[in-house]
Automatic annotation (TrEMBL):
GO CC terms of this entry: cytoplasm
GO process annotations (BP): secondary metabolic process
SUPFAM superfamilies noted in UniProt: Metallo-dependent hydrolases
Protein name per UniProt: Amidohydrolase-related domain-containing protein
PANTHER family per the UniProt record, alphabetical: 2-AMINO-3-CARBOXYLMUCONATE-6-SEMIALDEHYDE DECARBOXYLASE, ISO-OROTATE DECARBOXYLASE (EUROFUNG)
Stretches assigned to the Amidohydrolase-related domain: 33-345
Stated family: Belongs to the metallo-dependent hydrolases superfamily.
A Gene Ontology molecular function term of the record: carboxy-lyase activity
Native source organism of the sequence: Penicillium flavigenum
Length: 354
């Protein structure tokens, strides 16, 4: 493998990321990195069934939504049909926080992470893994985070907007953020169900409960001071940030009231917009226009939510991004791959771009 300097001398073009890191620009703007896709390991499915999640007519449901059939082979072949080159895989809600004992949650998270490691080992240039943490058990979660990042070499960490009702800004989660910060590790935050499931009126919680839980988590990061404490941790929030581009000014306005902390409005807005947002189920012109005006094009990343969305929806969603967002080819390069490489530099190594 020639060094970066040798590549320069050989005339291989370079692309420099927002981080300042430059890579050999052998990826074209269509090379797609999907930061929001899920694996459904059978060990996880079996534990959900044993824990009493409903199985109706052979289909398992979590949060009122079917858990898709999934195999490693189908994941790769679907990536091919979607034109996705590389995916980060994570486990969706409810992670392992349905288990009521720390040791059980820890041991299931460990088995699942080893399984994810096996998948990425099988397809090292197609898949990277995001660590599943046994939150809300913080000590066990820190141990697992270290194992995934330091021993297994995962590309990043998966978190949920809340773990059994505890939101990201909660004081108890400080050791998690401290461990992430010490490693410059990046996080993908997937929505989870809020406690108050009855407000969904019996409809699937992911429909609106998930995007609003993303808003709650981002709000929690602001109001607790967690984001101010760790401003540099790169975090992706799913589904275009839920409703955050639309609600940020309202939240910043309220947070400026003296009895709510008197935060400066521009500072709050900068914090609320200081994340990455993926395009899963967020590809309409209205959503992309809002997202683009909220964060610009350096903080939007591609996401599909496969296998929880039908392939046809993922396909038309991916195809709609460029036109609906009125993005240039250069901007599509950022959204398709360069922004994801900025967040997860270990993918650069996996793809041998440095
Ligand atoms: C149950 O599953 C079978 C096989 O997938 C399907 O043909 C049938 O329509 C399903 N029945 C209901 C009530 O969903
Ligand atoms: C990326 O995926 C597309 C569509 O499957 C494929 O045509 C292209 O060759 C892939 N690029 C690389 C560098 O693997
Ligand atoms: C993944 O697990 C399978 C089945 O246990 C095994 O045959 C394979 O060698 C493992 N692959 C890697 C890369 O660890
Ligand atoms: C999860 O939430 C329930 C209900 O609030 C509570 O009883 C339980 O102790 C929580 N579990 C953990 C591990 O915090
Ligand atoms: C984290 O990033 C900073 C700034 O880019 C760098 O100085 C530091 O060495 C990095 N630390 C680790 C553990 O990678
Ligand atoms: C699309 O973006 C171009 C600049 O790249 C701009 O000139 C044009 O007005 C935009 N079109 C719409 C419909 O916003």
């Amino acid at each position: 493998m020639p060094s970066l300097l040798q590549k320069l001398l050989l005339g291989i073009p370079l692309a420099c990321l927002a981080s300042g890191h430059c890579i050999a620009d052998s990826l074209d703007s269509n090379y797609k990195i999907d930061v929001h896709s899920h694996a459904v390991p059978s060990i996880w499915r079996e534990e959900l069934v044993s824990a009493g999640f409903p199985v109706k007519n052979g289909t398992l449901y979590t949060d009122g939504f079917p858990v898709a059939d999934w195999t490693l082979d189908s994941h790769i072949s679907t990536m091919d049909s979607l034109g996705v080159n590389y995916s980060t895989i994570s486990v969706s809600a409810p992670g392992v926080f349905f288990l009521k004992e720390a040791q059980k949650a820890k041991s299931l998270a460990r088995s699942i992470n080893l399984q994810l490691h096996n998948y990425t080992g099988t397809h090292p240039t197609r898949l990277g893994a995001l660590c599943l943490l046994p939150l809300p058990y913080v000590d066990e979660a820190v141990e697992e985070l270290k194992f995934c990042l330091d021993t297994l070499g995962f590309v990043g960490v998966g978190l949920f907007t809340n773990a059994n009702g505890t939101y990201l800004g909660d004081k108890s989660f400080d050791p998690i953020f401290s461990a992430l910060d010490a490693r410059n590790a990046s996080v993908f935050v997937h929505p989870a169900s809020p406690d108050c499931t009855s407000v969904a009126g019996g409809w699937p919680i992911p429909m609106t409960g998930y995007p609003f839980d993303t808003v709650r988590a981002i709000e929690s990061m602001l109001l607790t001071g967690r984001r101010a404490q760790y401003p540099d941790i790169k975090m992706i929030f799913a589904h275009g940030g839920g409703a955050i581009p639309y609600l940020a000014s309202r939240i910043a306005g309220m947070a400026s009231l003296p009895w709510l902390g008197g935060l400066s409005v521009p500072e709050s807005l900068a914090q609320l917009a200081g994340y990455y947002f993926d395009t899963a189920a967020s590809t309409s012109a209205i959503q992309l226009t809002a997202l683009k005006s909220f964060v610009g094009t350096d903080q939007i990343v591609t996401g599909t939510d496969y296998p929880y969305v039908p392939v046809s929806q993922a396909l038309s969603g991916l195809a709609a991004i460029e036109g609906n967002g009125n993005f240039t080819t250069g901007e599509m390069g950022k959204i398709n791959n360069l922004n994801a490489l900025t967040i997860f530099p270990r993918i650069i190594n996996a793809l041998k771009l440095n």
